[in-house]
Amino acid sequence: MAVKLSSLTCSKKIPKWVYLRACVSSMSCAENLQIIPENDQNPPNNTSEFEEKIQFLKNQLYPDSLIRVLDSTQDLNYSLKLFKWASLQRQFRHTADTYYQMILKLGMTGNVDEMEGFCNEMVKEGFVGSEEALVALIDVFVKHGRVNEALRVLVTMNSGRFKPLISVFNLLLGALVEEKRDFQDVLFVYKEMVKAAIVPTTDTLNYLMEALFEADRVDTAVDQYRRMNKKRCFPNSRTYDVLITKVLFANMLERNIADTVSWNILIRWLSENVRINKALEFLCRMIVSSYVPDSTTYSAVVVGKCRLHKYKDALDLFHHACAKSWVLDCSSYAELVDCLSRSGMIQAAEVFHYMSNYRCALRSSSFIMLIKGLCETGNVDRAIRLLPSAYYSGTSCSTAMYNTIMLGLSESGKVNDLLVVLSRMLTEGCTLDGETYCTLIESMIAVGRTEDCIVFFNLMAGEGLSPDSETLSNLLSYLGKHSQLHKILLAIDKLALDREMLDSAMYNVLVNGLWKEGHKTEACRLLDTMLEKGWVPDATTHGLLMGSIVREDAVCKLATYEDIDLQDRISNILAEGLGET
User: Fold this and answer.
1) How many whole angstroms separate alpha carbon 139 and alpha carbon 6?
2) Domain count of the chain?
3) Which residues, in sequence order, are CB contacts of 256 under 8 Å at separation 6+?
């Protein structure tokens, strides 16, 4: 089945997401309990086992203990007696869990009427978690082939003014169709769904159409297909599978219900299953039979051409559709843009512009692929010019899409344009991610905008994001050359604390740079951290710290008396660290 609820088995209790305590009295349910005649039961010759369980419950009467006892009791009548006995105890309150266990036992043994009575009683008592319990029961009954029991539970839910999710109805419809049950059963569930004011999905309508075909109501099934868009549902591959496997096209002709829609169903299915030659054969038969191809026909064949990588043929078909002022359907539109973009054909932008004029939105992943294709072929400016069309058509402009454009601008050296795109990105409420910041930092490095590098890196770290190792290495090297490493020290500390971002080479750059910038305490601290990780400073760092390199600037020499205490500290750190390695 296409739709499934979470996996549940015949457990001792309903899932943990059902509250285990209730705050209402269970005395009324005791009054309504009836013992089932023992026609087919085989109770023990004595009641010692039953009395033992009563005695056990007297000592610890809680919902969980009652559930365990009920689960271990094979005799259904004894289970009912135990349930009734617990209900009559003043200090005890039933829960949705205890009712779930009793209802489950009744349902799994085929006592449908008694089971329904308990369902109604649970709803009437208003236990916390009743709705979740009923949903769980439907799931278990369906999985164990107890569809009748599941249907009774559904009726209880609707009469109790609960509003089951569409997945519950789809689960039942799928089970009914799989068992090839009478169409009236399927119709009953569909009516219950309408009664609950639940909107159908494509899966719902697929099940309904399959049931209609099985009931030999082909015309009604095809009519349901025609009306899918009115219900804001769109055909998927399963839809076409149902239509083709359940409808022999020859039978459609015999029934005199073949029309453009019917031909399109067949052509679409053949195209999506990479049988384009057969699809074209039926297209010819369609025209010979005096049926005029429409936009749906062209959309179907476009898909077939794309899946065979015949991009130029697909584009020609699109141009024919344009000449008639038609538009492709959403999925065909996306497939055409995808295949053109993958092949590096900038005509994908032409397709997007035309469809956008008709306010046809393109799915986000396809739009990103289009923008990426344009940027990789050096058409960044053209990619930017598509943004107003995206806004007009309702196509989503995601962070990933903006990242693609900014990377293209960065590689083209158009930093000012990049910042304009960044401004637009922020205006539209897009969130900057790690890739965005890396592109910005690399771009600022390329044009020597040191302060902007620092600002973007600090913002990035403040948002809990981290650059890739290449960007971080480039940034540290660049800021080190400009004696600006101290301005990102807090961000570096945050990265080092949260993630293992810094490698040995980066630590060497930081220690060297901070020392040269006069931040010797911070350099010592990083050196200490570096040695704790088991990394040995390179020759340059070691020489700098120990004063072995003669500085041109005498003020910076480590051998001066002003730095003796600090030099001793460095020596101790190095000696200790090197001794351990």
Assistant:
1) 8
2) 2
3) none
Boundary residue ending a domain (198, 221, 236): 198
User: Which residue stretches of the chain have pLDDT < 70?
Assistant: 1-47, 50, 244-258, 498-499, 545-581
User: Within a domain: residue 459?
Assistant: no
| Amino acid 17: pLDDT | 29
Q: DSSP characters for 42-97? A: ---SSSHHHHHHHHHHHHS--HHHHHHHHHH---HHHHHHHHHHHHT-TT----HH
User: What spatial distance separates the first Cα and last Cα of the chain, rounded to whole Å?
Assistant: 61
The tens digit of pLDDT for each residue in 360-402 reads 999 999 999 999 999 988 999 999 999 999 999 999 999 999 9
Residue type, 518: G
- Tell me how many helices (H) and strands (E) the chain has: 33, 0
Query: Do 315 and 347 touch, CB atoms closer than 8 A?
Result: yes
Asked whether residue 120 is domain-assigned, the answer is yes
Residue 361 domain-assigned (yes or no) = no
Give 486-508 pLDDT, tens digit per residue: 999 999 888 877 667 788 899 89
Tally of CB atoms within 10 A around 329:
19
Is the pTM higher than 0.85? The answer reads: no
For position 78, which CATH number holds? 1.25.40.10
In a domain, 204, yes or no: no
CA dihedral sign, ordered 502, 506, 512, 517? negative
Q: Which of 198, 216, 246 is the last residue of a domain?
A: 198
Q: Domain range spanning residue 61?
A: 1-32+50-198
Is the separation of the CB atoms in 30 and 84 below 8 Å? Answer: yes
Given a contact cutoff of 8 angstroms between Cβ atoms, the answer to whether 510 and 526 are in contact is yes
Average pLDDT in the chain: 81
Placement of tokens 């750059």 in the chain: 509
Q: For residue 123, what are its two tokens? A: 């709803």
Rounded Cα–Cα distance for residues 437 and 360 (Å): 32
Residue 417's φ and ψ, nearest 5 degrees, are -65, -35
Neighbour count for residue 158 (Cβ, 10 Å): 15
Residue 162 tokens read as: 């609960």
Smallest CA-to-CA distance from 338 within 377, 380, 368 is with 368
Tell me, what's the pLDDT at 184? 93
Handedness of CA 202, 204, 208, 211 (dihedral sign): positive
State the alpha helices, DSSP H only, in 235-343: 237-246, 249-254, 260-272, 276-288, 295-307, 311-323, 330-342
Give the C-alpha distances (Å, rounded to integers) separating 288 from 251, 284, 405: 18, 6, 48
